[in-house]
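Ticket #4471: structure export looks truncated?
Reporter: QA, pipeline team
Priority: medium

Steps to reproduce: submit the single chain below to the structure queue and open the exported record.
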Amino acid sequence: MKTTTIDWSCNRTWKQSAKNTAWCLLGCSIGDFGTILFFQLSKIPFPILAIMILAIINGLITSIILETIILISQNLEFNKALKTALGMSFISMISMETTMNLTDYLLTGGAILTWWVVPLMLIVGFLTPWPYNYWRLKKYGISCH
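Actual output as written to the record:
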């Protein structure tokens, strides 16, 4: 079995993977934060774990929608754009969502957005999948955006 060595020092790939990760973070944050904020403002009694699972699911959905729209705007047909958005970044989205919500849970007890926790959630959510996105871009030469 042949192993391929990845060059981790390519600035151009780090910049491109950062751009891809930022788009993914934007999409995930819309659904995730929107869900948490809805329950926080409405005060609907719902278990914290259920809110956080719903936030993760909604974050995944909004990220897929945003990435599909971006790919369609780059002249990809809908089916191919959706398949690409699902296939190329799903691992990134899951790791991003999981660490963002874990950060929220560890710092606030979960499902609470405050002025100080949101930036930390975004930083963790960005940094977690960024190396994977770099690796994937370097190995396959493909990205979502």
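Status: closed, not a bug. The export was complete when the record was re-opened. Leaving a note from the reviewer for reference: Residues 82 and 144 are 10 Å apart (CA to CA).
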